[in-house]
TrEMBL record:
One of its GO terms (cellular component) is cytoplasm. This is BPL/LPL catalytic domain-containing protein. One of its GO terms (molecular function) is biotin--[biotin carboxyl-carrier protein] ligase activity. Signal peptide: none annotated. Residues 14-127 form the BPL/LPL catalytic domain. It comes from the Bacteria. PANTHER family: BIOTIN PROTEIN LIGASE (PTHR12835), BIOTIN--PROTEIN LIGASE (PTHR12835:SF5). SUPFAM superfamilies: Class II aaRS and biotin synthetases (SSF55681). Pfam families: BPL_LplA_LipB (PF03099).
Length: 281
């Protein structure tokens, strides 16, 4: 199935995120969303990750994709689910392409995990005022977001300095199924974008309330679900926080991580906690 929204495919850009933001108005056209357009590149010279980290890729060896999203006002309180749904969609595509890799997991909040990090997701709000648009004879206020994913089909260029980096090819090779692997980055990009679009359509069809089944399915994929992990909750960027131990319970409807600490349950959102033990969570 081909994308029902514009999906621009480029040989090289500085960053699909930066390019999408700079060309937003011209690429949107008359799209009404939820996905307005997508940008995929075979190589990035200045890839972006979370917290201003860089993302290095091997040219023609990674899926480098950014998707522009429009959400109605009533969905913005659950905007954290954009990250969740995109990484979940990538996991579903991975499993469909290679059923032997069906035991993929999600390292909250944004990594696709299978014996290491296979893909990472970033989602940011577009810095612009909320606009009013006409849709279905009703006036709706929308917020715009930009979601990006980098998925390693081949080992990343700097894999020697990334001890937890993993690639689809290496996973397939270890399973003895590398001959079955599709290494067409454009095909993978389209499939991930289309599956993400289907997830957003399910959300929209439920009047922008996430179905409980979606939340449960995501929770079941969490790395270390039901296990104790060590984490800290820094109060400021230069504050390492105090190490705590808690048990991962799942995801709440707003996209936060549910952690049981002693006899109480607390909910943390992306950026509020860190996990010093990278192999643990």
């Amino acid at each position: 199935m081909s994308a029902t929204f514009p999906l621009l495919q480029l040989d090289e850009v500085d960053s699909t995120q930066t390019f999408a933001l700079s060309q937003w108005d011209s690429l949107c056209g008359e799209s009404t969303g939820p996905i307005l357009f997508g940008v995929q590149a075979a190589h990035q010279t200045n890839g972006k990750g979370r917290f201003d980290r860089s993302w290095e890729d091997l040219a023609q060896g990674s899926v480098l994709l950014s998707l522009a999203i429009s959400l109605p006002e009533q969905a913005t309180s659950q905007a954290a689910w954009l990250t969740n749904l995109l990484v979940y969609s990538a996991g579903e595509v991975l499993e469909n392409e290679l059923p032997a890799l069906m035991d993929w997991q999600i390292k909250w909040p944004n990594d696709l995990w299978f014996n290491g990090k296979v893909a990472g997701v970033i989602a940011t709000a577009r810095p612009r005022p909320i606009q009013t648009i006409e849709r279905s004879k009703q006036v709706a206020r929308t917020n715009h977001y930009l979601c990006g994913i980098g998925l390693n089909l081949l080992p990343p260029a700097n894999s020697h300095s990334l001890p937890f980096a993993q690639s689809v090819f290496e996973l397939a090779r270890k399973s003895g199924i590398e001959a079955e692997l599709n290494l067409d980055i454009w095909s993978w990009g389209e499939k991930i974008a289309n599956r993400f679009a289907q997830q957003l359509a399910t959300w929209a069809d439920n009047d922008w309330e996430l179905p409980s089944e979606v939340i449960a399915n995501f929770s079941r994929r969490l790395l270390n679900l039901g296990q104790k992990v060590t984490f800290s909750a820094p109060l400021a960027s230069n504050d390492p926080g105090v190490a705590q131990t808690g048990k991962i319970l799942g995801i709440d409807p707003a996209g936060g991580l549910r952690i049981q600490i002693k006899d109480a349950e607390k909910i943390y959102y992306a950026g509020e906690i860190t996990f010093p033990q990278k192999t643990e969570f």
